Amino acid sequence: MSVSLLRRGLELLERPGRAKVPPGLRRDRAGPRAVGAARRRKRAPEPGWNKATVKGRVVKSAIEEYHKRKPVNHLRENLQYMLKGKLVADKAITEQVLTQNRGRKSKDQPPEKTEKKQPKGTVFTEEDFRKFEREYFGVP
Questions:
Q1: Is the pLDDT of residue 87 over 80?
Q2: Region Disordered: which residues (predicted)?
Q3: If you write DSSP's letter for every residue of 95-132 in order, what string do you get?
Q4: Which of 10-19, 36-45, 61-70, 108-117 has the highest mean pLDDT?
Q5: Element spanning 91, H or E
Q6: Can you tell me the distance from the alpha carbon of 93 to that of 59, in angstroms, rounded to the nearest whole number?
Q7: 111 close to 105: Cβ distance less than 8 angstroms
Q8: How many CA within 13 A on the CB side of residue 116?
Q9: Is residue 11 domain-resident?
Q10: Greater confidence, 71 or 57?
């Protein structure tokens, strides 16, 4: 958004009783000298030590820095903490917690376990089949 569009928008939002300033008295930074003024303005130097000098600087060891930032494996301590308390909840309570935390959508529901049907034994014996064969096909 350009500055002119922004000014026009602000003029539209201006209160109606407010007087407009004539263009000659307006304090804009639009002059040629104002462009680089912000860049040229420097912060005042802070009192303290100069960073360009080496005096008073402590040399850090790269190995110490590496060991300081090296990730630590907390597995053994965590396992000891977890195994310290031997409290085991009832299976009914754990199932209840799991069903409460499960979503209501069908994709969140576990598949229902269907009982496997046991193959029923046949009522007929081998002799019955042979007898049927003889009667039906005429095989002796």
A1: no
A2: 18-49, 98-127
A3: HHHHHHHS-SSGGGSPPPPPPPPPPPPPS--HHHHHHH
A4: 61-70
A5: helix 91-101
A6: 59
A7: no
A8: 2
A9: no
A10: 71
pLDDT in tens, 16-30: 666 555 555 555 555
User: Does an H or E element contain 19, and which?
Assistant: none
For residue 125, being part of any structural domain is answered with: no
Return the half-sphere exposure (C-beta side, CA atoms, 13 A cut-off) of residue 115. Answer: 3
What CA–CA distance (Å, rounded) separates 102 from 96? 10
Token output for 69 = 């930032």
Burial class (CB in 10 A: 0-12, 13-18, 19+), 122: exposed
For the chain, give the percent of residues with pLDDT over 70.
Answer: 70
Q: What is the DSSP letter of 138?
A: -
Quick check: is 64 in a domain?
yes
pLDDT score for 43: 63
Residues 133, 139: contact at Cβ < 8 Å? yes
What pLDDT is attached to residue 75? 94
Our count of domains for the chain comes to: 1
